[in-house]
């Protein structure tokens, strides 16, 4: 699917910061081998012609088997969080609307983590600054 793509360049990847009871869901990737074992914000690539928020809802349904509502975006100063030359990441706060998240084929574990502890997880490189930004929110009154 993702080999044929006619949409945004660099390719846009969307991720969900799912918050419940003050804790954030982080998902540990099970594939591909070079990314396995690293934590990420669940989500995936936006398909051509798809709105980012709609892609996020779709990906979370596919990956975790739950429905989410998409709230505010956590923006970086440049408007996105760079993954590399070919991909950019954008992330949104999300709330669970229906279902209990469980790892599917893409992940082998999900954890609920306090904002302050997020930077200590073993993130994909692009996600570390996101985790740091979220932890900074914990310091605010
Ligand atoms: N989903 C997600 N991907 C991330 C994050 N951070 C990060 O660098 N990535 C990278 C990993 C992958 O190279 C790429 C997203 O690929 P993916 O495998 O999740 O996308 P997808 O579900 O649409 O899968 P596919 O159709 O390409 O198989 O972005 C993140 O927080 N969430």
Radius of gyration: 14 Å
The share of residues in helices is 10-25%
What spatial form do the alpha-carbon principal axes imply? globular
- What sequence of helices (H) and strands (E) makes up the elements? EEEEHEEEEH
EC number: 3.6.1.55
Keywords: DNA damage, DNA repair, DNA replication, Hydrolase, Magnesium, Metal-binding, Mutator protein
Enzyme class: hydrolase
Cofactor: Mg(2+)
Can you tag this structure with a few keywords?
141 residues, alpha+beta, eight-stranded mixed beta sheet, 38% strand, globular, binds 8-OXO-2'-deoxyguanosine-5'-triphosphate, metal-binding, magnesium
Describe this structure in words.
- This protein has 141 residues and is of the alpha+beta class.
- Helices cover 17% and strands 38% of the residues.
- The protein contains two helices and eight strands; from the N terminus they run E-E-E-E-H-E-E-E-E-H.
- It has helices at 52-64, 128-138; strands at residues 11-20, 23-29, 39-40, 43-45, 67-74, 81-84, 87-98, 107-114.
- The structure holds 8-OXO-2'-deoxyguanosine-5'-triphosphate (8DG).
- 8-OXO-2'-deoxyguanosine-5'-triphosphate is lined by residues 1-2, 13, 15, 35, 40-41, 43-45, 59, 83, 87, 89, 124, 126-127.
